Amino acid sequence: MSKNKLISVEQAVDYIKDGMTVMIGGFLGVGSPNKIIDALVKKGVKDLTLIANDTAFPEVAIGKLIVNKQIKKVIASHIGTNKETGRQMTEGETEVELIPQGTLAERIRAAGAGLGGILTPTGIGTVVEEGKRKIEIDGKEYLLELPLKADIALIKGAKVDKNGNVYYRNSARNFNPIMAMAADLVIVEAEEIVEIGEIDPNEVITPGIFVDYIVRGDE
Amino acid sequence: MSKNKLISVEQAVDYIKDGMTVMIGGFLGVGSPNKIIDALVKKGVKDLTLIANDTAFPEVAIGKLIVNKQIKKVIASHIGTNKETGRQMTEGETEVELIPQGTLAERIRAAGAGLGGILTPTGIGTVVEEGKRKIEIDGKEYLLELPLKADIALIKGAKVDKNGNVYYRNSARNFNPIMAMAADLVIVEAEEIVEIGEIDPNEVITPGIFVDYIVRGDE
Amino acid sequence: MDKQRAREIIAKRVAKELKDGDVVNLGIGLPTMVANYIPDGIDIILQSENGFIGLGPVSKSGEEDKDLINAGGQPVTIKPGGAFFDSATSFAIIRGGHVDATVLGALQVDEKGNLANWMIPGKMVPGMGGAMDLVVGAKKVIIAMEHTAKGKPKILKECTLPLTAAGQVNLIITEMAVIEVTERGLVLKELGPEATIEDVKANTEADLIIADDLKKMEI
Amino acid sequence: MDKQRAREIIAKRVAKELKDGDVVNLGIGLPTMVANYIPDGIDIILQSENGFIGLGPVSKSGEEDKDLINAGGQPVTIKPGGAFFDSATSFAIIRGGHVDATVLGALQVDEKGNLANWMIPGKMVPGMGGAMDLVVGAKKVIIAMEHTAKGKPKILKECTLPLTAAGQVNLIITEMAVIEVTERGLVLKELGPEATIEDVKANTEADLIIADDLKKMEI
């Protein structure tokens, strides 16, 4: 517990290279690491594969990366709130892979949890089946869905201690805790940074062992 | 949120019938619902299938159900601390199915999460493989492990509000939260019962929607 | 019938399907209106798939919480006794059968209980979000929609748009009818306040079985 | 060599394998002793599979917390900056590759890195507990054991007891030797303070490759 995890937003963005696969927490912008995203936009890192629940709105959070054409491929459950994502998809500029939200969450969790995959009933009888193995158990069909990993996860916490333990607030939690387990490098943007011991070990949501670096957020 | 979930320990035990499958939280007795277990021992409900991490010690928690010969089958990861379980297994009195602890946890979670199964690398190349489907993904073998459900889950919380929201303390959490999701009926023994609103919604570990009944514990 | 009046009839009628203590997920749009018509004495618990139960009304202007939105992105409140969780847990709740009912809109629904509500190829591809998991996982799937779209039937012999899920719909509620999906086919159970059997048949492509106890909708 | 002295040598040598910031899971018994010999300036984070990170020393008499034990059932403490979680998360951490090293005892270990440490058919069947997951999931698997049992080799050409896992062991540390498991076979890297190559060979059934840079163990 000796490493100093605190870095600047510029240092954080230096870890993100062209072509990497990046998970970003948030749901329609709530719970996204906006300061890091803004720095990414400023730096113009490109050809990223983005894994996120949605692409927010054109002027909000993850949406800005879309508008700025930094994303080569989007893996998400929903893009309907950001018309630019749809336009880029339709015109063949950006590849979009749509995944049911529960399957997206479970695939990310599977990667973090060392599972080879999970069987879900979701998507059976729909286009989501395409290209996937179906496995029958007790007469019921399931889709075999594979783990989804990233090079980097960018997450956002309300309160983060210097050990990297994260406490989320309200619905800003969403995909952040599972993404924190499924990437090679994890950077958390902290609304508030506190001393070790200030978050009760019973109330830690993401244990500090998952967090490599902490960036001080704006709020 | 209108139902009164508070019942007596006698009422709780009335839900548990001979031959049922019962999950009980706890790890070597820590985090087990002792008051309910004691009432079960007193009532002598029998032929139960028990799903638990371990069988504790002969005089402690779940161990008492073993000593009192109320269990037909044990599904656990470890029975070494309770010699009576081993004796009953060896002499053919009680069936014992041993499951790796992580697989046990994941199978219980899968049942609660509506998954048809999960793929784990744990147990490959061991006796745990026997009778299970192996699935290869990217050249690596995994065992397909199926969900594990129960008729009743008996869990223990440190603080429970009248809605059934549960807050666990320290390592007493263990299997309780996942068992609360994997049974048809869930009864929580509460060390402390508090009013609705006294547990911060961010600090609830088991949401009240999973809890059918609350029993006041002894501490 | 005026659109607003039609939507009100639908929302009111759906509200009567919900039982005290039910955990319910309401889709965006018309389904969200259902919360306004829950009868006195009935308490339902709303689940919000972005990560909480105990969803309360939309926030008053000036009282918005930046960390608290519903799945449609509106600033909302949480009721006392609610709980927050991450997206994996949220969909464990949904897929695991812990949601008693979900109310969703539809583009098309058919005789087999197939539902299409997430895309129109070449036109609208917003993504399925949580809909596929909700329809597969909820114990009861209620479709709440206007009976026709631009005068054309939406209740078909067979959906032509890409499915959200196969064979999962239980009940269809429109301003003209309450229709149950059964193994025998679609059963017309109730007529809307201004509808006759002939009206419903004329506006429905699918075959309808008229219930022996066909009633007028009570709203 | 006296048993106590042997165990101390092993624990001290294992301690030197651990790097600053490593997340480590120590098995019951001898492996637990390793925590007493971590070199100054090295901070390791101990994971306890019953549900926390930041495992601290055993509790002082009279200061035991009924809700806080290690996986062996001893009352223990948690260090500031630690965090509690449930059993599914605990094994997600283990199986997901988030534990840098695990130190475990063995009944037998062989040339292929196979490990047997959980049962002796007909004699000892305590259950595998978390061992199978730990051995499969930890990035580095270190076996810490006395070189022989009652004078008989434990490092074999091929394990005869039921395996805990196949091909997962990386390093074997005994009072006589440090042996690395490689694709070429077992490589003798270091000799214990009182051992010669001949001693080690005489007490090892498996073939040993002598490292070019064979060293004396520094403890």
TrEMBL record, chains A, B:
Pfam families: CoA_trans. Keywords: Transferase. It comes from the Bacteria. GO terms for molecular function: CoA-transferase activity. The keyword Ribosomal protein does not apply. Transmembrane segments: none annotated. Belongs to the 3-oxoacid CoA-transferase subunit A family. PANTHER family: ACETATE COA-TRANSFERASE SUBUNIT ALPHA (PTHR13707:SF60), KETOACID-COENZYME A TRANSFERASE (PTHR13707). This is Butyryl-CoA:acetoacetate CoA-transferase alpha subunit.
From TrEMBL, chains C, D:
GO terms for molecular function: CoA-transferase activity. Keywords: Transferase. Heterodimer of a subunit A and a subunit B. NCBIfam families: pcaJ_scoB_fam. Belongs to the 3-oxoacid CoA-transferase subunit B family. This is Probable succinyl-CoA:3-ketoacid coenzyme A transferase subunit B. The lineage of its organism: Bacteria, Bacillati, Bacillota, Tissierellia, Tissierellales.
